[in-house]
Amino acid sequence: MTPHVKRVLWVLWIAVVLFGTAGLVQRLIHGHQAAAYGSYVVWGLWVSAYIYFIGLSAGAFLLSSLIYVFGVRQLERIGKLSLFVAVITLFMALLSIWFDLGRMDRFYRVFTHPNFGSMMAWMVWLYTAYFLLLLAEIWLALRPDLARWAGEGGIRGGIGRTLSFSPGPLTEDQENRARQWLKALGTVGIPLAITFHGGVGALFATVSARTYWHTPLVPILFLTGALVSGGGLIAFAVAAFWPHRDQAYRETVFYLGRVLLLLLAFDLLLEWAEFSIPMWYGIGHDFDLLKRVLFGEFWWVFWLIHIGMGSVLPAALLLTRQKQPWSVGLAGLLIAVSFMAVRLNIVIPGLIEPNLQNLQTAFVDRRLLFRYVPSLFEWQLTLFVVALGVAAFYLGYRYLPLTEKGRAS
Amino acid sequence: MEAKEERPDVQEAPVAGSEIPRRDFIRVAALAAGGTALVAGGAVVLSSSPEDPTGPGTVRLIPDTPSVPKGEGADLLIRMQEELRLAMAKPVEQRHWMMVIDTRKCVGCSACTVACIAENKLPPGVVYRPVVQQEMGAFPNVQLRFFPRPCMQCDEPPCVPVCPVEATWKRPDGVVAIDYDECIGCGYCITACPYNARTRDLGDNYSDGTPALQPYEQQPNHEYGKSWSRQDHSSPVGNARKCHFCLHRLEVGQLPQCVTTCIGRATYFGDGNNPESLVSRLSVKPNALRLLEEKGTKPRVVYLI
Questions:
Q1: By percentage, how much of chain B surpasses pLDDT 90?
Q2: Domains in chain A, number
Q3: How confident is the model at residue A205 (pLDDT cuts 50, 70, 90)?
Q4: Least CA distance to A163: which residue of chain B?
Q5: Which residues of A touch B199 (CB under 8 A)?
Q6: Is B158–A39 a contact, with Cβ atoms under 8 angstroms apart?
Q7: What pLDDT, on the 0 to 100 scale, is given for residue B20?
Q8: Contacting residues of A for B36, CB less than 8 Å apart
Q9: CATH number at residue A357
Q10: How do the domains of chain B map onto residue ranges?
Q11: Average pLDDT, chain A
């Protein structure tokens, strides 16, 4: 990266942080007043961002378990990076949903007064377990390298000693044990990640009042969506940030591209089912709502961002330029970024049609609308979360042994 | 930096070094497991379903008004008032509140909506009883129909089981209540109500943007028999809010504000457990229906059409 590009990125990042911090201050002082959601469209950008980030996390994690549990050799080198991305995106998700809470000060009550009949309580408990598991896994995965650093001086040595709990390099035996533990935790992690992210989908799917969400396929779509978006992000991260551009790198990226294409195709198949079945005969309430999603005011969110930018273009890249790492990386980035459109198209359409006709005109108030466009303030906070995530990734990339950067090989 | 220079001496004990991390690891694992168990155990102990008081302590002896004629021909409000007095003389679990709304008498004036806002001091974006207007037919054969929509106080309320913190529940008298001190404001219950009867208090005020908040927005409301001030972002700001059949008024022998205010005598309220009550009689008429019955929520609000 040239110094000039680097400077531009720094300026951009600082600008986003300042812009986002202004939003954060407003959120903390004035609460939800500048937000555009209300009493009918009760969830908006932040909830969409939450399921988006948490999907990235679950996807990145499930990909990492391919390595630690099933020993997929082509991906062996990206395990730590995947785990780290999973930790960061989970943190971004939790921050996003915390901003959305009406009473931010009471989030802990889900732990102290849980109602285990509620899918939301299950979800919170499961992602807490997932968070602890992620921390344990990433520590185990990084520990051998961190322990190798422990004997060195400078920042690296300090980080190594602080985080590895070891005065020096681990013995062969210790490294083997860590690998066994990683495999065990990864094995526990797969059902946990499936349950917890399927649970996020079920949080929506179990709400019978919203027919748009209330389909058995929704939790499955959450899982495939997580895999394809998380996989896209990892493909991009590996293609763009891997230090050694050798043959092994090219093979890893090629393999990721294949996996990504398969996941994308499967996700689109399920999506086809979700739309085509209720719409086929062109009659009824569900048809009207889905028509609004596809051809209504925000048609471009589906067609241009999700289908065009997030499906057709990446598929073309993955089919025609699959051997080139830049192509796989770009396809991954396009899928990962545009998946936010899918998340918005899950949350918001579920809330824009009242079951009681004409309720929208019964009482006129800006909070009592069945229409929603995120306000600038909401974008501010989401950008703040993104800026924090980027910073955390950068710090990890720079100061943790996530890639094979600097390792004598 | 100097501190780091001192570290190499610990490497002089490689035998101990190979043992300590393992012990550390076991300790960390034990701590994590113990911590999780503690949190889980604590949560089970702390978590208990909300229980409303029942029995003789919930009886309210509302004074009679012997000078007011209550027999045949008396105003319906007088009849409902008397039935309310009788219901309150029973323990709470023996009452079952319900509402009947006669759409043929409703003129769509929205007086009930406004009275409810005044009674409960509702901020912008929060409304408990909007009046839904339906236009039927085509010119020249057209007709308007009005559906005031309070909370249905469903016997199978879909909003209750979704709450992650048990902040909302069905009371023994049938009213679905919210504890503003428990609610975390996640909005899940709002999505779960098929009637959109729950709204979100996002902290707005009608006099936002003016030099000062008006006194009517600073006064506390008395929902659920407590004093709730929205000053300084206190609850119910941030919470889900809904119609509660004016429980605080019932406790002192007053009918819900929407019933008292209705200029067309179109809203009836009373105890569904009293077979002689007005609501019990009206709710079985052939022209009675409940909204979105196919949702299986078993609403306690009945419409006459």
A1: 74
A2: 1
A3: very high
A4: B21
A5: 39, 367-368
A6: no
A7: 41
A8: 129, 132
A9: 1.20.1630.10
A10: 2-46, 56-304
A11: 91
- Is 80 exceeded by the pLDDT of residue A408? no
Residue A157 lies in a domain: yes
Q: Which of A158, A171, A356 lies nearest to residue B196, judging by beta carbons?
A: A356
**pLDDT band at residue B38, thresholds of 50, 70 and 90?**
low
pLDDT at A2: 82
- List own/partner pairs for A184-188 with CB under 8 A and 24 or more apart: A185/A68, A185/A133, A185/A136, A185/A137, A185/A140, A186/A64, A186/A65, A186/A68, A186/A69, A186/A137, A187/A65, A187/A69, A188/A133
Domain containing A279 equals 3-399
Distance CA B251, CA B241 (A): 20
How far, in Å, CA of B197 to CA of B300, rounded? 13
B115 neighbourhood in chain A, CB within 8 Å: none
Domain B56-304 fold:
Alpha-Beta Plaits (3.30.70)
Across A388-396, average pLDDT: 94
Closest B-chain CA to A185 = B29
pLDDT in tens, A325-343: 999 999 999 999 999 999 9
Q: Of A208, A357, A363, which has the smallest distance from its Cβ to B130's Cβ?
A: A363
Comparing A95-104, A171-180, A230-239, B46-55, the range with the smallest average pLDDT is: B46-55
**Would you state the pLDDT for residue B34?**
58
SS3 A310: helix
Tokens of B2: 């100097």
Cα A78 to chain centroid, rounded: 17
In a domain, A360, yes or no: yes
Inter-chain contact A368–B166, Cβ cutoff 8 Å? Answer: no
* Least Cα separation, residue B265 to chain A (angstroms): 20
Cα separation of B258 and B265, whole Å? 10
Residue to mutate among A96, A118, A163, with most B CBs inside 10 A, is A118
Burial B158-195, CB ≥16 within 10 A → b, else e: bbbbbbbbbbbbbbbbbbbbbbbebbbbbbbbbbbbbb
Side-chain-facing half-sphere of B116: CA atoms under 13 Å = 26
Reference B164, options A213, A211, A128, A348; nearest CA is A128
Find the residue in A nearest to B6 (Cα).
A153
| CA dist., res. B32 & res. A189, Å (int) | 16
Per-residue model confidence as pLDDT tens digits over B175-220: 999 999 999 999 999 999 999 999 999 999 999 989 998 888 889 9
Does residue A407 fall inside a structural domain? Answer: no
**A144 and A403 in contact (C-beta within 8 Å)?**
no
- Residue B301 C-alpha, separation from nearest chain A C-alpha, in angstroms: 15
pLDDT for A158: 84
Cβ–Cβ of B208/A33 closer than 8 Å?
Answer: yes
Contact A208 B158 (CB under 8 A): yes
The residue of chain A with its CA nearest to that of B189 is A207
Q: Considering only alpha carbons, which residue of chain A is nearest residue B198?
A: A39
What tokens appear for B303 in the block?
């419409």
Q: Is residue A364 part of a domain?
A: yes
Nearest 10 degrees: Cα torsion A316, A318, A324, A328: 110
HEC sequence for A178-231: HHHHHHHHHHHHHHHHHHHHHHHHHHHHCCCCCCCCCCCHHHHHHHHHHHHHHH
In angstroms, what separates the C-alpha of A161 from chain B's closest C-alpha? 9
Indicate which of A37, A115, A125 best probes the interface with B, i.e. most B CBs within 10 Å of its own CB. A115
Chain B hits for A109, Cβ within 8 Å? 165, 182, 184
**Mean confidence (pLDDT) of chain B:** 87
> Is the ipTM here above 0.95?
no
Nearest CB to A115: which of B158, B163, B291?
B163
